[in-house]
Design goal:
This protein has 19 helices and six strands. With about 450 residues, it is mainly alpha-helical. The chain folds into three domains: about 100 residues, Fumarase/aspartase (N-terminal domain) (Fumarase C, Chain B, domain 1); about 220 residues, Fumarase C, Chain A, domain 2 (Up-down Bundle); about 100 residues, Orthogonal Bundle (Ribonucleotide Reductase Protein R1, domain 1). Strand 3, helix 8 and strand 4 form a beta-alpha-beta unit. The protein starts with 14 loop residues before the first helix and ends with a helix.
Length: about 450
């Protein structure tokens, strides 16, 4: 295929250099966006009189036929084309003749690729938002089903205080909700059209950039043509949001991996989302969760690749910027794949409430409530804290729990203790007494469920 820019050159590009320079093997993903943007560009050229209406209709028909053939598989991408823009333009010219050569009037590949990437990533980001909302919905439903399941809450991976499984799951809902709004914020900032910036300085033609922007669903146009072709902030913002999503999924995965181990056995993963061992027949491995945890580093790498690529290049467009696409495409596809397997994995996960409750009964996780019991009866908290710490040490020596200690043994530490202490330190009571907003108390968890439901509306 002849290069569109070949007129200036006496020698053909070296084959190895040509392959190195080409981006068709990855930017062909944007063929729909490239065709859509080109049709709107041609419509604008027609509306301002740069091309005739008949030429526009010929171009639009030709581009739509290319789109139809690519979608059906009747047309195969030519890997010898330098990029998706060159491929579409060459194919258009082949189909409709010299009129196809008029399409590139008043634009450059610099603003064309910037447009295509914004359109493509806008679609992808909205797909990811939909997947995030589905995961929030599934996690919320699992929380609703387990409002009565008491488990240990942890700090430092040490049993700390009793909570409900619902409360724990809702923490992930809050994280994922922030992920949605983070993407929505990024979409607002990126929803401006760079088309019409041309190579960097704009054009001498009387174009209507706002018309194209409106027809393509943008909120306006990039107000500086140099920035229009060189801006990739939106890639960084999206990749940063994707990295945060993956961090949240990785934390969730880590807990699922722990919970599904024999040491915890808080949950049972469905067979569809686990694998076995080649030599150990008893194994049921949480491989999907482990892979999500592992792929997190990959998305972090994509973000760092983009940041590093951009950090030293002068304005405006440089060929370095071709490296933006493989990174953002990889990050996008990784997040979509991970969410795609995570949603049904959570949906089919079975909590084992008895094991959670039994674990909550150990580790003295009601010690804070025992200290609060003394404080509510007038003892300063620090004094109560010290007494309860001494009692816990005594229980450890006797290999008993706080509930198993006799009232006489309690009174040896303070006369304030009465029989009502036992109801105060029951796991159910410890949970129910948490009445502060956002806490693990039953009423608070219901309020959190309503908050998530409202968000999903």
């Amino acid at each position: 295929m002849d290069k569109m820019w070949a007129g200036r050159f006496e020698k053909a590009l070296d084959k190895q250099a040509d392959d190195f320079n080409s981006s068709i093997h990855f930017d062909k993903k944007m063929y729909k966006e490239d065709i859509k943007g080109s049709i709107e560009h041609a419509l604008m050229l027609s509306s301002v009189g740069i091309i005739t209406k008949e030429e526009y209709l010929q171009i639009a028909d030709g581009l739509n036929s290319i789109l139809e053939d690519l979608n059906s598989g009747a047309l195969i991408f030519d890997e010898n084309a330098e990029d998706i823009h060159m491929f579409n333009e060459a194919e258009l010219t082949k189909r409709i003749g010299d009129t196809g050569k008029k399409l590139h009037t008043a634009r450059s590949r610099n603003d064309q690729v910037a447009l295509d990437l914004r359109l493509y990533m806008r679609n992808q980001a909205n797909d990811i938002i939909a997947l995030l909302k589905e995961l929030i919905k599934v996690t919320k439903e699992k929380a609703e089903e387990n409002q009565d399941a008491i488990m240990p809450g942890y700090t430092h991976l040490q049993r700390a205080q009793p909570i409900t499984f619902a409360h724990h799951l809702l923490a992930y809902c809050m994280m994922l909700m922030r992920d949605v709004t983070r993407l929505e914020d990024a979409l607002k900032r990126m929803n401006y059209s760079p088309l019409g910036s041309c190579a960097l300085a704009g054009t001498t033609y009387p174009t209507d950039r706002n018309m194209v922007a409106k027809n393509l669903g943008f909120d306006g146009v990039c107000m500086n043509s140099i920035d229009g072709v060189s801006d990739r902030d939106y890639c960084i913002e999206l990749e940063s949001a994707f990295a945060t999503i993956m961090m949240h999924l990785s934390r969730f995965s880590e807990e699922i991996i722990l919970w599904s181990s024999w040491e915890f056995k808080f949950v049972e993963l469905d067979d569809s989302y686990t694998t076995g061992s080649s030599i150990m027949p008893q194994k049921k491995n949480p491989d999907m969760a482990e892979l999500v945890r592992g792929k997190t580093g990959r998305v972090y790498g994509d973000l760092m690749a983009t940041l590093t690529m951009l950090k030293g290049i002068p304005l405006a467009y440089n060929k370095d910027m071709q490296e933006d696409k493989e990174a953002i495409f990889d990050a996008t596809e990784t997040v979509i794949k991970c969410l795609g397997v995570f949603i049904p994995m959570i949906k089919t996960m079975t909590p084992i409430k008895e094991n959670m409750y039994n674990a909550a009964g150990k580790g003295f996780i009601n010690a804070t409530d025992l200290a609060d019991y003394l404080t509510k009866k007038g003892m300063p908290f620090r004094s109560a804290y010290k007494i309860v710490g001494t009692i816990v040490g005594e229980c450890i020596k006797k290999n008993i729990t706080l509930e198993q200690m006799t009232l006489e043994e309690y009174k040896a530490h303070s006369d304030i203790f009465e029989n009502d202490l036992y109801s105060e330190i029951s796991l159910e009571s410890c949970v129910a007494k948490r009445i502060s907003k956002g806490s693990t108390g039953y009423a608070s968890v219901k309020e959190q469920l309503e908050y998530v439901a409202e968000f999903l509306k």
